Amino acid sequence: PFWGELEVGLSGMYGPQDRARDSLDAMWFVGVDLMWNKGPVTVKGQYLRGFSKGKPLDDVYTLNLNLGGYLEVDWLITSVVGVLVRAELRDALVSLGTDRLYLTHSWRGVAGVRLTFNENVSLKAEYLKNGEYGGIPEFANDVFTSSLVLSY
User: Fold this and answer.
1) How far apart are CA 138 and CA 86, in angstroms?
2) Residues in CB range of 96: below 8 A, 6 or more apart
3) Residue 140, SS3?
């Protein structure tokens, strides 16, 4: 009870990629995630890696996910007001033969607030500060987003 509750999970996936005409070159993902909770504070995180050889003739992309991960802290200040901060990192190379190439070396910092009026109505707002690293040119791609969530 003093340390709170901790959950750790391992996950994986292995199998054919969408649109591939055979399953000779399977794609795979492995990951670990955690969640720690103590009273009004929850910490969540995940680390993920993956690979797919791809098949350009089948229009199937190659993927080399070297790193995908995040760490998030959620704090429920009152029964109505909650805040969050999250840090994300991604290092991936996606290609389709010589036709397309996507190199991602990105990080993201997120700050948000949530108002939960009852179990059916929440109002959310987040600011996402996006950045690139490893020689990838920076560009203006920060985002502010808000949403009204109605559930029934």
Assistant:
1) 20
2) 54, 56, 59, 60, 61, 62
3) coil
Residues 6+ apart with CB under 8 A from 108: 86, 87, 88, 89, 128, 129, 130, 131
Q: pLDDT, tens digit, for every residue of 39-80? A: 999 999 999 999 999 888 788 889 999 999 999 999 999 999
pLDDT computed for residue 65 by the predictor: 96
The pair phi, psi for residue 56, each rounded to 5°, is -55, -35
The SS3 call for residue 42 is strand
Beta partners for residue 15, in sequence order: 27
User: Which range has the worst mean pLDDT, 4-8, 21-25, 95-99?
Assistant: 21-25
Torsion angle, CA of 129/86/46/80, rounded to 10 degrees? -140
pLDDT at 1: 59
Other CB atoms within 10 A of residue 62 CB: 20
